[in-house]
Design a protein that fits this description.
The protein is an alpha+beta fold and about 35 residues long. The protein has one domain. The chain has one helix and three strands. The protein has a three-stranded antiparallel β-sheet with strand order 1-2-3. It is globular, with a radius of gyration of 10 Å. The two termini are about 15 Å apart. The relative contact order is 0.21.
């Protein structure tokens, strides 16, 4: 499972820093699960 982190400019990046995307792209391509601490 890939973890996406907010990047500060309305985009999200993968935890390894290799991928970057928008919320709309994430929502369209993946079943998202929000995990809170």
């Amino acid at each position: 499972m890939r973890t996406w982190l907010p990047d500060g400019d309305a985009t999200y990046r993968s935890s390894d820093g290799r991928r970057k995307t928008t919320w709309a792209q994430l929502h369209a391509q993946f079943d998202l699960v929000e995990v809170t601490s």
